[in-house]
Amino acid sequence: MNTSILNKIKGRVCNTKACLLSWFDRNRERLRRSLRYVPVLLVYIFFFPLLLAIPPVLGSLFIPAVKLQPMQEGDEATAKRIKQLEKEIASREKRIEKLTPGNAYLVVNTTENRFALYKNRELVREGMCSTGSMVVLEAEGDKSWFFRTPRGDYKVQGKIEKPVWRRPDWAFIEEGLPVPSGDHPSRYEKGVLGDYALTLGDGYMIHGTLYQRFIGLPVTHGCIRMLDDDLELVFKTLPVGAKVFIY
Q1: 3-class SS at 103?
Q2: Cα(216)–Cα(115) distance, rounded to whole angstroms?
């Protein structure tokens, strides 16, 4: 019985050996091509770490180390100037804080046609508005009008609900119409200034407009136009005497 088992094992070993030899014969050329990459793989395994270590060593040999120098007289003067500027900035910040109103006020940027509403030194609302078109209208003779929103510090002088616009002379000249007398009914128009208006003096106002789509563009004759919701909030937030900063 032991002899039969040994014969079976020998038969299987012979078959396995024959299969291996057959496989090597079939794949001899493929194995030969694969062996070409063995040297490259060995170089990568053994020499690549060495290549990574060489640059730091060469850098330490050829690049001198940077040594921190003690502060020179010029550096001391610079440090002194920096401290002086910091004091000036702090002083100006305190001055700005004193000049900033503690109650409600409005800031208008005529360059970007934007406004910012503040109350108790906190931003309440910001958004788009429209300011002067910077257009010059010339009439017969020496008359001309420059449609520019004035810059500076102003105060709310009055607040009007359902304002009525009294058309000035330029409004008729702009449309090519004859200028009527000062109290002619054609000078008065309702509904064109929105629901609210805040007067700033010299005929300038903060008011609404029928042309909401033009808000954000410099299209006015000098007044400041706002969207309905923004105007209502500004009207209800700013009391008479509140500051309006226009720049």
Answers
A1: coil
A2: 10
Contacts of 208 (CB under 8 A, 6+ apart): 193, 194, 195, 196, 197, 225, 226, 227, 228, 231
Specify the pLDDT at position 240.
98
Alpha-helical (H) ranges within 36-147 are: 38-62, 73-99
- Tell me the C-alpha to C-alpha distance, in Å, between residue 107 and each of 80, 123, 125, 154, 155: 36, 11, 11, 10, 11
How far apart (Å, rounded) are the C-alpha atoms in residues 90 and 95? 9
Decide: 130 and 215 in contact? Cβ < 8 Å: yes
Could you tell me the two tokens for 231? 């105007």
The DSSP annotation for 134-178 comes to: -EEEE-STT-EEEE-PPPEEEE--EEEES-EEE--HHHHHHTT--
Record the pTM. Answer: 0.63
Q: Cβ(118)–Cβ(107) under 8 Å?
A: yes
CATH superfamily, with its number, for domain 105-246: L,D-transpeptidase catalytic domain-like (2.40.440.10)
The residue ranking higher by pLDDT, 147 or 83, is: 147
- For residues 191 and 210, the answer to whether their CB atoms sit within 8 Å is yes
- Per-residue pLDDT band for 63 (boundaries 50, 70, 90) equals low
CA separation for the pair 181, 235 (Å, rounded): 32
Angle at 213 between CA 210 and CA 217, to 5 degrees: 105
Question: Higher confidence at residue 10 or residue 105?
Answer: 105
